[in-house]
TrEMBL record:
Record lineage: Bacteria, Bacillati, Actinomycetota, Actinomycetes, Streptosporangiales
Keyword Transferase: yes
Methyltransferase type domain boundaries: 41-134
Keyword vocabulary terms for this entry: Methyltransferase, Transferase
Top-level taxon of origin: Bacteria
Pfam families: Methyltransf_12
GO biological process, one term: methylation
UniProt xrefs under InterPro entries: CFA/CMAS, Methyltransf_12, SAM-dependent_MTases_sf
Protein name: Class I SAM-dependent methyltransferase
CDD domains: AdoMet_MTases
Molecular function as annotated in GO: methyltransferase activity
Length: 251
């Protein structure tokens, strides 16, 4: 099975697609305090959970969602229709790094999608290109090391020791890129567990209901992921979502 399809199936019961609860997602979006008729962009929107909630909270806002996943964008369109916000949401199937908007945005999101740009630093640079000068906000979700990873875990994750910083270092990296951190949410272990149990369990249930090569592949992916989580990064890899404001230039 294609990785994209496995991810789509696994997120079926947790479309936020990050270790963030629904209540915390809403709190972060509310904290942004967007202006009237705000323009919102999500680079790597997946199934559009952040955008559809943002449009529900801000009835006069419009939004663009960018992703490569055809199934994810289809799910985003369906959810937008269910919530009655489809007329204010535009979806684009294109690489996030290639997207160019017609006008700047009041809020740009990239939550758990920094891989689309090759890491945190290029993600922050790309986000800045889309922000409304002076007033634009960014909401960026990124992993961090809760404690130093072992060499074995780094091999399993295919990661380098400096791929993530600790929490303080992650904040420092964002501020070094020209942003001021004005709010944030550090995902709890309960949020991580809910996300991972949902990811592996939803995929396992689908696999059991679809015997055959696809079901076998999905079940193997679920078990591999669960092993990597429970025997590997649980309690080691954290996740933080930070609300950022462009910092004024120095000097």
């Amino acid at each position: 099975m294609e990785r994209e399809l496995i991810s789509h199936l696994a997120h079926g019961d947790h479309p936020i697609a990050a270790p963030v609860s629904e209540s915390e997602l809403v709190r972060l979006l509310t904290r942004a305090a967007l202006p009237p008729r705000a323009r919102i962009l999500d680079l790597g929107c997946g199934e559009g959970a952040w955008l559809t909630r943002a449009l529900t909270l801000h009835p006069d806002a419009t939004a663009d969602g960018v992703d490569l996943s055809e199934s994810g964008l289809a799910a985003a369109a369906e959810e937008a229709g269910r919530r009655g916000v489809a007329d204010r949401l535009r979806l684009h199937r294109t690489p996030a790094a290639d997207y160019r908007g017609a006008e700047p945005y009041d809020l740009v999101l990239s939550v758990g999608a920094t891989h689309a740009f090759g890491g945190l630093a290029p993600t922050l640079a790309a986000v800045r290109d889309h922000l409304r000068p002076s007033s634009g906000l960014a909401l960026v979700g990124e992993g961090f090391w809760e404690r130093p990873p072992t060499a074995e875990l780094l091999t399993v994750l295919g990661a380098e020791p400096d791929e993530y910083a600790d929490l303080a270092g992650t904040v420092e990296r964002m501020e070094a890129a020209g942003y001021a951190v004005i709010h944030g949410h550090t995902s709890t272990l309960d949020e991580w567990d809910e996300y991972e149990w949902s990811w592996t369990g939803t995929l396992t249930r689908w696999a059991l209901a679809h015997p055959g090569p696809d079901g076998d592949a999905a079940l193997a992916a679920a078990r591999e992921h669960r092993q990597m989580w429970l025997r590997g990064y649980r309690g080691v890899l954290g996740f933080v979502t930070l609300l950022l404001h462009q910092a004024p230039p120095t000097g």
